[in-house]
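Comment thread on ticket #2218

A.B. wrote:
> Attaching the input chain for the structure job we discussed in standup.
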Amino acid sequence: MSPETVFVAGATGLVGKPLVHRLVDRGHHVRALVRNDSSAATVLAMGAEPILGDLGIPGPWQDHFGDCTSVVDASQSRPRGRITARRAAAAGRERVRFTQNMFTAIQNGHSPLGTYVWLTGLDELVPSAEGIVDETSPLTIRPRGFGRIGSQIRPAVEAAHHSWGLPLVSLHMGLIYGSEGWFPDYVRRIQRGRFALVGNGQNFISLVSAQDVAQAIVAAIEHRMAGHRFVVVDDEPVRQADLVRFLAEGLSVPVPHRKVPPWLAGLVVGRAAAETAAANVRGSNERMKRELEVKLQFPTYREGLPPLVAASSCPSESAR
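C.D. wrote:
> Ran it. Output below, let me know if you need it in another format.
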């Protein structure tokens, strides 16, 4: 395996941090785009080369692609507060601008690029009648949930792939959990008795740890899988109600049973977030494990969630 020079956007995010660690541990040189000196110090401590800049603003950061052999877009553009359909669409348009600025840098730098890894979600895929998605699943023309973000970006990345040969690898990820993002608040709401199931709770959710997403990205780079897409999930989809029960039992709090219809949940968390919470999707990771040779660090939520629960939970209300 030859060392790669990898440009990572979103290097200090939920996926970016474990990704940078894994790339460095594998002997690759990492250029990490960061917005400020504090983030620069963070990635420098991880062994990466910080590049100051903002994906949304053209600038000197675009001059650092000339010798890059791989690029990973792990940037986030999730709206704050309620994730409504309108805000999700606006976040998607913002991500299009980020992506186009990156494409300009790649083309101007004449980079010997072998892989461009784009991260998207399962919401972009049409499930079978049984709710199963894999690499053969068609792309939706009626985006729902967080797919309202990814569907805005896909035309740009596919046009670059077909028009000037962007070596695109699309990773369709399950709901990513880790020490940041949605999961800590999810745990706190269960612990404080403020949680309600969206819908009847019997829908399946496909999860995947941020550590295993990072592993899949590195495998896609090292295997040079341009032109392919992969579903990145763990081995065992879980029903929403069973996930909540597992977390409540781990927290030693009453299991939430309150249910709200998706439309009502949408008024609280936003329509896009409610649609994703209520979606019935079981992702298949067979191709990922076979072709990328990924051996999951956390094969199911049973192995991956307990350490995060312990770290995310607050002191119990009864102890106060």
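A.B. wrote:
> Thanks. Noting for the ticket: Confidence is low (pLDDT under 50) at residues 316-320.
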